[in-house]
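Researcher: Sequence recovery benchmark, item below. Answer with residues only.
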C-alpha cells in the first residue's frame, strides 16, 4: 500500500521562485512556437513557387508540384523535431497553470501534495514527451494536411486543363507519365503518399484522444 503524500503549503520564497520559473518556461515555449511558424511558412512559400512555375504556361511541366513534395516532407520532419522541443516547454507551463495558478485562484492556497515531484523529475531527467511520429501526426493535422491537399488538387488540376482540357481517363493517366515511368505508377505513388499522411494524422488524433480520456486530471504533461 502506497504511503499517502504529505501535504504542505508553499511559503512566499517558493511561490516567487516558481513564478519566475513559469515566466522562463513561457518565454521558451513562445520562442519555439515562433520557430514552428517559420518552418510552416517555408513549406507554404515553396509550394507557392512550384504553383507559379507549373501554371506559368499551358506547356509548363507539372513535375515541380511533385518535386516540392520532397521539400514539404523535409520541412515537416524539421517542424516535428521543433515541436518535440516546444511540447516540453508547453507541457511544463500547462502543468504549473493547472496545479499552481488555478489552485491559487480557486482554493486560495498552494498545497504541495505530489504535483511538484513530477515537475521536479521532469527537470532532473529531461526528455521528450511525445515521439517523432506523434509530433509529425500533430503537425500534419494542424497545418500540413491543408498544404498537401492544395498540392494534390493543383497537380490534378494541371493534368486536367493543360495543355488542353482532358477528354478521357486514359489521357489523364498518360499526362502523368514522367519519362520512362508510367503515369499510372506515378499517380499510385502520389495516392499512397497522401493516404500515408492522412493515416498518420488519424493515428495521432486517435492516440491523443485516448490519452485525454484516460488521463485522470486535466493538464497532464505531454
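Model:
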Amino acid at each position: 500500500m502506497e504511503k499517502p503524500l504529505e501535504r504542505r503549503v508553499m511559503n512566499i520564497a517558493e511561490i516567487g521562485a516558481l513564478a519566475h520559473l513559469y515566466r522562463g518556461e513561457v518565454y521558451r515555449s513562445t520562442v519555439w512556437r515562433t520557430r514552428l511558424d517559420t518552418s510552416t511558412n517555408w513549406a507554404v512559400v515553396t509550394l507557392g513557387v512550384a504553383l507559379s512555375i507549373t501554371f506559368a504556361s499551358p506547356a509548363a511541366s507539372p513535375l515541380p508540384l511533385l518535386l516540392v513534395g520532397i521539400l514539404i516532407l523535409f520541412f515537416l520532419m524539421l517542424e516535428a523535431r521543433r515541436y518535440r522541443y516546444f511540447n516540453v516547454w508547453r507541457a511544463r507551463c500547462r502543468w504549473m497553470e493547472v496545479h499552481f495558478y488555478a489552485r491559487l485562484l480557486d482554493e486560495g492556497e498552494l498545497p504541495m501534495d505530489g504535483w511538484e515531484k513530477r515537475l521536479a523529475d521532469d527537470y532532473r531527467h529531461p526528455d521528450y514527451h511525445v515521439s517523432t511520429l506523434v509530433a509529425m501526426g500533430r503537425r500534419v493535422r494542424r497545418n500540413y494536411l491543408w498544404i498537401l491537399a492544395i498540392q494534390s488538387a493543383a497537380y490534378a488540376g494541371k493534368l486536367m486543363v493543360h495543355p488542353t482540357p482532358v477528354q478521357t481517363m486514359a489521357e489523364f493517366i498518360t499526362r502523368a507519365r514522367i519519362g520512362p515511368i508510367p503515369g499510372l505508377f506515378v499517380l499510385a505513388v502520389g495516392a499512397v503518399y497522401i493516404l500515408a499522411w492522412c493515416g498518420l494524422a488519424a493515428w495521432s488524433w486517435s492516440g491523443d484522444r485516448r490519452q485525454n480520456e484516460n488521463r485522470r486530471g486535466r493538464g497532464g504533461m505531454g
